[in-house]
Structures are given as structure tokens and as C-alpha cells.
Amino acid sequence: MFLNPNQESVYRQVIISKIVGVAIGVGCFLWLDEFVPGLEEHFKWAVAVHYTMLCAIVGAFSCFVNLPYFGLINIPFPWWFRGSLMGAAMNFSITLFAFQEFKTLIAVIARQWSVFGWMSSPYWFVAEGACVGLFSAGVATFVDSVMLSSNGSRRAKTVSYTHLRAHETCADLVCRLL
Known about the structure:
66% of the residues lie in helices and 0% in strands. It is built from 6 helices and no strands. The longest helix is centred in the first third of the chain and has 29 residues.
């Protein structure tokens, strides 16, 4: 069920994802403040906090091989699918809750930048959440794998039977049923 059952790895991926989320949230807060005047202050803060939570949840779910949603199917999903799915799901739920604010945001952006097509719907935010989830999961997975490989404690090294016998002690006997 878990990709990384090591508790340290789970904490590390959540922390890395939260850092990514804070950076994206602060960036969005500043971008909204600069390019979309007239939005309420609490909406900009909600977006900043939302990205921190979105990336933390993506980081927690990046430790699962099989998503809890699909526990009955028991098919392993790669990190990029899990991250995209969780990001899209989180942004879909916030779009449902703050639909009117997103319509206002889209109207302001459309006036300033001549946005048309699929970007004229508030549901573009779902695709954007999939991209943020993909980015957050990718960064967390990459940094975690680099830290594990540089640590060396979790790398499996193959050794010969003769090497095992050379380090054999009374407490650690090597199986001789070969």
C-alpha cells in the first residue's frame, strides 16, 4: 500500500510539498494583488493558504502506491498520476465553494488580457490544480529520492555468498541451504 513506509520519508515529502505550496501560495497572493485589483483580501489569503494545504495533501498522498479511493481495485498508480489527481480534486472542490469569486476573477482577467475559450470558465482552475499537484509531487519525490540515495542507509546492495560468510557471526548466521 505504501511506497515509502519509512515515517521519515513521509514527513520529508510532506515538508517538501508544504514548502513548494507556500512558495506557490505567496506567488499567487502577490500576483493577484498586482494584476487583479479589486479582489477581496480574504480571497487572496484563502488562495495562499489553499496552495499550502493542497501541496501538503499531495505530499502525503505521494507516499501511497495505491490510492485509498481505489483500494478495491488494487492497481498501483505512479507519483505523477497521484499528484495530478489530488491537485485537480482539491481545486475542483474549492471551485465549487468559491464559484462566484472565480467568476469575478475570470471577468477581471478577461477584460485585462482578452481571455477566451476554456479559460473563460472557472473550472480551468481544476486543470491548474492538476499542474500544481504534478509539480509538487515531482519535487517531493525527486528530493526524497536524492536524499535517500545520498543517505545510503536504504540502498540495497547485492553481495556474494562468500562475502556474507566472511561477515558471519554466531548471532547472524548465513543460510547454508543453497
